[in-house]
Amino acid sequence: MLLGIVGGRTLVVAVGEASVAALLCLGLTFGAYRKGLRRWWLPALALLIALGALLEATARPGPKPRIESNRDEVLLVQGCVVEPSSFFEGRMQFTVELEPGARAKVYQYPKDGLPPPVAFGQRVEFDARIRKPGSFQNPGGFDYPEYLARRQIYWTATMPTTARVHALAGECGGSGARWIAHMRAVLLARIDRFFPQDDYASGMLQALLLGETSQVKKLWTEDFRRTGTFHALVISGQHVVVLTAGWVWVIYQLTRRRWVAAMAGVLLAWVYTGLAGGAAPVLRAAWGLTFYAGAGYFYRPGRVLNILAAVVLVFLVMDPGQAYDASFQLSFLAVLAIGALSTPIIERTTGPFQQAGRDLDNVSWDVTLPSLVAAIRVELRLLAETLSLLTGLPQSWANPVAGGLTRLLATGAEMLLITAMVQVMLAVPLIAYFHRFPVTGLLANLLVAPLLSAAIPAGMLAVVTNWAWLAGWTAWLVHTSGAVVAWTSQWEPAWRIPAPPLWLGVLVALSLLLLATALRVGRWRAPAFALAMGAVAVLLAHPFAPDTRQGELELTAVDIGQGDGLLMVLPDGRTLGIDAGGTRRTGGIDTGEDVISPYLWTRSIRRLDVLVLTHAHADHMGGLPALIENFQPGEIWTGLLPTQSPEWQAVADAALRHGVRIKTLHEGDAFRAGAVQFQILSPLVDREPSPEAHNDDSLAMLVSYGRRRFLLTGDMEAKVERRLLAEWDLPRVDVLKVSHHGSRTSTTDAWLDRLQPGVALVSVGRGNSYHHPHPKVVERLASRGIVTLRTDELGLVTIRTDGHWLDFDSFRWQQAGVGLMPAFGE
């Protein structure tokens, strides 16, 4: 069915086509089965694929709802609160449903203090600017609008700083949903009251217990991500299993009825799912426990793979788009690793020791057990006798000690094996989505998972009972987990892995499927294991050359929003990263880590030879520490640096940690890099540094290759332009990177008349509050017939030249199937 969903979306199969294929396959399956053909399962498999394509076609979304307004128009908005307010770094956010299936994410930035919270089920009214959510238009980028659309959110609403939310009469939403939301708010408030002076404990416990991540700072979770333990922190199916296991045990001890305990566990799982905000991983776990309990009630074995298949089927029928969801894929593959890889190995290795270590005093039990298990029990009794003789322990004590130690060691080995198999199974999505494969994950998970597993029931019991002492114990577990993760992350190598080519991802998947089959049938295990590990090794090594063109000079403007983030590739393959944008407040997006790095990894670029910082403004250097960490540049070129700048100090500290040399350039510097000539035009030689950065500190470079010239200007303004026009015999340029995102303070008429560029490149954010590029600058460029390429309109823009011909491309053109656009040449 998964194949059908993927194929249906890729080939855009229509409902009618999928229906005809499904009916045809159904007829073939029925006919083959009636005739007793041994391979009737082949048309049955084709039927499942056709049904998957049909599901995808019928669930394909129609036109998105629309609101007719311009970006700056303030509207009066009314709706029902479906996600209550949360507060973070001076802002309040909540979600309202304007009409069924049409929601907006609301942000409020009040001037004076935080406003009163809004609760689930309130009908509210407020003033706001309504805009469609955007995403960065780069290859390998995250489709944020699609992510929100899956939650029926189609707009963001930003309230003016003076606006207020007004509650309207009446309530909305079901009474059960309102009760769940009220209880969730009560529990979150209790966590806040437990830790008024401990933001870390409060924020992390809200995330751990109830899935509320608004109070979690990205810095706190970085070590968890590096060591592959982030899954233990964020709310997941593990939380449901840990909570329900203890509850089921208590109910069973009280009633001695398995079905009563099982139903109590299912009930708790679904209540917790509601309290956790209906998080998808928890919802999947609740369905899995329901199927497991149902199988037990009807005296059917609860096999992991069968339950996994049932859960996957339910979720794909409800929403075929789940197949493309990273969380769904990771959850599915993690459980698959346990059922298909770990379980067969455990059954042949540690399983007999687990079974043998139980109730060693019961000698009569041995005759009912497999011969291997019985033999191990005999050896354990001999070990217990030896222990009794050496220590003087009674035999009745020595037997449980020997059996308990055996089971403890077997459990440790199983945890190690399961962690290793899960990491191997998740290798492709971990690298494709996060470009990580944690080396210290085995050790970190062994240490952290028990601590956080203990924190989950303790924390939930604390917030339900309001016991402060238990909350303090839970906070200690969380702080200890953070300390352990920080300790293990010291040994995690600073390596990131580019996304694999499609053929390699498919090869890894097929080799793991072959290994799972070999483990089940008991044949060809060694060759299958060697093939799987070899494929994973190639995945990790990524022995593929960067996607660059020899003999061509490339300048790419990455779409990072309002800021600059450029990539220059020299004809000999050397790479320069020029600026790296900043951090977007309304989401904590680090453009270096979250935008530029993923694009570079799609091109198999693992190292930047040089990083260039034009000047020390946040929208140019905010992402540089991440690029230094991820791409280990040889040196950093800078313009004039401020004497007092915490942001620049963060860059300098990152450079110091990684041994990166910082080289300051100024007007008059010139050098060659292979066939490319660099001429530095600014900062001016007589300009003195000041405590803060200024636009005229910018490093401007004239880059020449063959007959073509590119001028990169940073944010320098008209004053520097006039000085250069007066003192330099500036040549005509082919490509001009427009200064300061098209601000009216630069790109003067005289500047354009002297340079006569053929192409103007503008790096600018869509709908930015500065209204860049300024209409007068746009008019100046258009009146001279200059081809203007804007990242807000085209997404990522690439310009290449072989020294003669010049062509350019953009992400939007690629999406539309348009080829390279020649600009001019000789």
Features:
seven-stranded mixed sheet, OB fold (Dihydrolipoamide Acetyltransferase, E2P), 826 residues, alpha/beta, 16% strand, nine-stranded mixed sheet
Description:
With 826 residues, this protein is an alpha/beta fold. It folds into five domains: 2-58; 74-173, OB fold (Dihydrolipoamide Acetyltransferase, E2P), CATH 2.40.50; 325-437, no CATH class; 502-541, no CATH class; 553-824, Metallo-beta-lactamase, Chain A (4-Layer Sandwich). The chain is 50% helix and 16% strand. Helix 6 (199-210) packs across helix 19, helix 9 (237-255) packs antiparallel against helix 10 (258-275) and helix 22 crosses helix 24 (624-631). The mean pLDDT is 90.
Find the CATH topology of the largest domain. Answer: Metallo-beta-lactamase, Chain A
At CATH level 2, the architecture of the largest domain is 4-Layer Sandwich
Count, helices: 30
| Mean model confidence by pLDDT | 90
Number of strands: 24
End-to-end gap:
54 Å
Strand content: 15-25%
CATH class of the largest domain: Alpha Beta
Task: Say which CATH homologous superfamily of the largest domain is assigned.
Answer: Ribonuclease Z/Hydroxyacylglutathione hydrolase-like
Unreliable residue runs:
none
Fraction of residues in helix: 40-55%
| Derived structural class | alpha/beta
Rg, Cα atoms, Å: 31 Å
Shape: globular
How many strands, what sense, and barrel or not for the largest sheet?
9 strands, mixed
Give the tally of structural domains. Answer: 5
How are the strands ordered across the major sheet?
A: 14-13-12-9-8-7-22-23-24
